[in-house]
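Hello K.,

You asked for the raw outputs rather than the summary table, so here they are, unedited. I folded two proteins back to back in the same session to keep the settings identical. This is the first:
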Amino acid sequence: MHEVILITPHVQGWGILGHSLVAHLAQSQLNEKSFEWMRTHLTSDMSEIAFWADSIHSSNNNVLGSRRWSWSRPLHYINTPPWSCNYVHERDCINDRCAYGAVKNYSTRLTTYKNNVQHQQDFFFLVHFVGDIHQPLHVAFGDDVGGNDVTGRFMNTSTNLHSLWDTGILTYRLRNTFQSNISSYYDYLYLKMLNQTLETNYDNFPLWINESLNIVCKQIYFDEMNMTMNSTSKFNLSNVYYERSWPVIEKRLIQAGSRLGALLNQILTKHTESTTTPTTNET
C-alpha cells in the first residue's frame, strides 16, 4: 500500500469529505505504474484534487470565473423520469451529456491523448465523476432535481433530501462515531474494503448507475413510516432513517474507491505501455 495523505476539508460533507475518501481509497489500490504516473502528473495526492470538478463552479475558487466551466455542470449527474428505476442511455444521457458520458469520455482521453496538461485535467474530472455516479441522488429523478426539492428536517436540522445524502448523514456519522477524526474514519473504510472481494468490474458504468437508481427507488425516498417523501410535503427524519442509510453510503464510498482504483490501473497501465519507446531487436 502506498502512503497517502488525506486532507482535512474546511467544509464537511460528501462534496469534499466523500470525494476525498473515495480518492484516498482509490490511491491505496494503485499499482506501481499507475502510482508513478500519478506522481509525475500531480503535485499532490488524489484526495486533494478530488473536489476540483465542483470547486471550479464557484467564482470564489476560480479567478477566471465559474462561467468558464458551465459546460461541465450536466456531467455531474444523470436525470431519469420519476420512478424510472433503470438507466436508459438514449433517454437519460442525450449526446453523452451526463455523468456516464463524462466517465466514458475521460477514461478514453486518459488512455489515448498525449498532452500532459490536458491529461491532468482529464484525470481530475474522472476521479470526481466516478464518485458522483456512486452518490445515489446524482443518479435520480429530474422532476425534483435529484431530491433537492424534497425538504424537511433531519435530527431537528432543516435540510433537503439531496443535501442529506450529500452531507448530512456522512457528517453525522463522522462526528458521532469517529469524533470528527477523518483519518480514523478512512482507516475503518479501508479495512472494510480490504475484507471485501477484489473489484473486477472496473468499467461497467451502467451497472454502477443502476445500483444508484436501485437505492433511490427502494430506499432513499421512503421515510421512517415507509411513506414516500416528495416535494409537496415536509419530511421529519431521525435515528431510524440514519441507521438504515449510513451503511449504504459507506458501501457506495468503498465501491467507488475500489472501482476507481481498478479503473485507473487499467487506464494508466495502457497509457504507460503505449508511450514507452519500443526496443529495437538486434538482427
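The second followed immediately with the same parameters:
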Amino acid sequence: MDGSTSTIPARFFAIAAAQPREVFLQRREGERLTALTFGQIRDAVEDLRDHLLCQDFDRGSRIALLSENSHDWIVTYLAVVAAGLIVVPLDTGMAISDLCNIIDASGSRLVFCSEKFFDAISDALARQNSSAAATRMTSLPLSRSVAKQPPELSSSDVASIIYTSGTTGHSKGVALTHANLLSNVDACAIVCDIQPHDDFLLILPLHHTFACTVSLLLPMAMGARVTLATSYRSRDLIDDINISKATVLAAVPQLFDGMMSGILRAVESAGKSKRVLFTFLRAVSRSLRRLGLNPGYGLFKSLRQRAGVDTVRLFVSGGAALPAAVNEFFEDLGMTLTQGYGLTECSPVLAVNPASKNKIGSVGPALPGVSLKIDSPDQIGVGEVLARGPNIMQGYFENIEATEAIRSGEWLRTGDLGYLDEDGYLFLTGRLKNLIVTHAGKNVYPEEIETKLRGELAIAEVLILTSKKGNRDGDTLCCLIRPNIDYLQSHHPNDSPDDVVGSVIREYNKHVPAYQKIREWRILDGEFSKTSTGKIKRFLYADEFA
C-alpha cells in the first residue's frame, strides 16, 4: 500500500483531490436524488476535523457515534479518524442503558447523536454522572475553525472500536487499525472487481463492520458512489435501486430471501401459463448453468426489469448463512449472488466467492493476503476455522484475557466449524460453541440443519435445540420454527401451519441418519429475539424444550 494513502483519511482525501466534482453520497427524495460530491464531503470533514482538533482531546481519545445512516454519520466518522481520534460506532437498536455501559467501557469522551437519540442519551449520561458528553449532529460546526496542524497518522493506529452484539449477551470492544480496515477494503476490491463507476446501495446500519467496510469504505477508496437506502421496506429499496441505478448491493440473507419470496408471489399471481413458463425456464437455466453458461441473464431480463433489480451486477450476502435454495434462485434468474464470511475481529471479511467462480453452499476462498486453516479436523475434515492476515484485529479493547483466549500463536480462532475443499473454498457447518455431541459420539451441527430447513418455502426461520427430558439428555433434537405466513396463506390456505410444517419436518427426517432426525418441534408464537445483525439470540431459547 502506498504510504501516503495508508490511513482511512489519507485515502479519502486523495480520492477527493483527484475527483472533487464526482458524486460520493446520494439519497433518494421522491423521484429525484439529492447528491453530495467528494469535494463537498471533504470540506465538511475538514471543518469538523479542525473543530475537534481545537477541543481538549488527547490523541487516541474515543468518540462515540450514535445515529441512523446519514451523510452526517459518514462525515463524523471520517472527521474523527482524521483528527487522530478513535470512532466507537454504537448500535442504534440497543437499549439506552446498554449504550451507556459501552460509552463508559470504551472511555468515550464525546457522543455524537442524531436528534432521535440526543435527549435519551443526554439524560442517561447525566443520571450516571458519566464523564462523556453528548452533542447533536445537527450542531456540527458550519464554518472552518482555526485549528492545530492535523496529526501525522500511522496505519497501525486504531481507527475504530466496535462492540460486538453477540448471541451470548456479552459485548467486547474490537480494536481495528487503519491497516486492518484498508487491507480488507483492498482485498475485497480485487475479488469483487470494484470500479469507480459502481454505485453501492447502502442498506445495513453503518455501526456494523460489514456495512461500514463493504458498503462505505470500499466504494470510498475506489472513488465509487454510495446511495443511502431510504428505508428497509421492499418497495423503497426497489425504488432506490431503480432511481440510483445501483450496481452493487451487500446485505444479510433475510433480504435476499424476501426478494425471492416477492418474485415468487408475483409469478404465482400472474396466472397458470406464466407459472408453468417460469418453472420451465428456471429448469433450462439451471441445466445450462452446470455447463458454465448463464442463460438466465437473457431469459429473465424482463422479469428482473419488472422487479427493479436489473442494474445490480453483484449481490453480496454476509452476516449469516445463505440458504442454497435462495442462492440457486438468484443464479437461475441470471443474478450474481455471492456469499462471503467474516467476523468483526477480521475487519470483517475473511472469504468471499468470486462472481466468476461461485460455489453455492460455500463462503468462498480466503481473500488475497488472508490464510485459513482447519484446526484438529475430524474424520470428514471438519474442525475449527483459524485465520491470519493483515485484517486481523489488534485485540479486544482493555481485555487482554479475551484477546489471548481467541489467539493461537499468529492465528485467530474464529469459533466457527467448517472444512476446506480441494479448491480452497470454505464450507461452514456451525459454531463450535453450538456443536451437539450425542451420547453415541456423533457430531450434530445445528446451523447446518437450520440452513437446510430455511431453504423450504414454508419455513421463514428455525432454531435447532436439544431436549433436556429423560435419561437421554441432549440427544433428542428439537426444532423451534417461525413459519412463512405469506407462503402458507397463498399456497396452503386450507391447511393449518402445523400440518404444513409437520410435513416438511417428516420429509426432512426421511433423508437424514437417525442422530440428525428432529423428534420434537414447535411453532414459535411471534418473532425470534435477535441481535442487531439479525442473528437469533440462541441462548434465550436454550430451555425451550426443557
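The longest strand covers residues 411-420.

Happy to rerun anything if the numbers look odd on your end.

Regards,
P.
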